[in-house]
């Protein structure tokens, strides 16, 4: 087996781990369960991470890193502040759509993965602020206090991430991000 083939196999296996976690969560799975479900050995899983905790954290990082690339591309492809904001938050919702309720609950309950989600939520809030700042400077949207609007967005994002919003409203994360996009884009309109 060539090094390139081994690297491709590891990447494919890691994608399969992420897909399994997204579909079914991870808290209830042991490494033996994961290996059996993916038809590989535990030693193969150990080539991805030193422990289940490391595998979960790495899977969360991979999921959010991959999502960030798609989300940023969607925002960058849009023109106009409201369109960029809607594209950005809509793409966040789309990126989270494959994540099952169980995955999101496990993510919130497991500190290492929760910290990854929190970090990505903070990055998203800062991106929202930047989009709004750019729009205010360009006169594309009404003169809002971008830091305030971004803080409101961040508060909602944290509520989404912590599962509190889902408990209060019944909205899954993807739907909540779409609603946030609608609310913010209407709120900054001229």
From TrEMBL:
It comes from the Bacteria. InterPro entries: Homeodomain-like_sf, HTH-type_TetR-like_transc_reg, HTH_TetR, Tet_transcr_reg_TetR-rel_C_sf. Residues 7-67 form the HTH tetR-type domain. Keywords: DNA-binding, Transcription, Transcription regulation. The keyword Protease does not apply. Residues 30-49 bind DNA. This is AcrR family transcriptional regulator.
């Amino acid at each position: 087996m060539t090094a390139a083939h081994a690297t491709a196999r590891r990447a494919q296996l890691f994608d399969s781990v992420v897909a399994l976690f997204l579909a079914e969560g991870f808290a209830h799975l042991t490494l033996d369960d994961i290996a059996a479900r993916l038809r590989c050995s535990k030693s193969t899983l150990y080539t991805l991470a030193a422990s289940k905790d490391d595998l979960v954290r790495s899977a969360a990082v991979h999921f959010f890193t991959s999502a960030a690339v798609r989300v940023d591309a969607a925002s960058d492809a849009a023109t106009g502040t409201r369109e960029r904001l809607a594209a950005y938050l809509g793409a966040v919702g789309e990126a989270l759509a494959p994540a099952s309720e169980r995955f999101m609950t496990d993510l919130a309950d497991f500190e290492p993965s929760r910290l990854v989600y929190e970090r990505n939520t903070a990055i998203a809030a800062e991106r929202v602020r930047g989009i709004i700042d750019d729009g205010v400077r360009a006169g594309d949207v009404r003169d809002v206090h971008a830091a305030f609007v971004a803080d409101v967005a961040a508060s909602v994002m944290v509520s989404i991430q912590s599962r509190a919003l889902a408990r209060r409203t019944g909205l899954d994360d993807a739907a909540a991000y779409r609603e946030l996009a609608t609310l913010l884009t209407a709120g900054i309109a001229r």
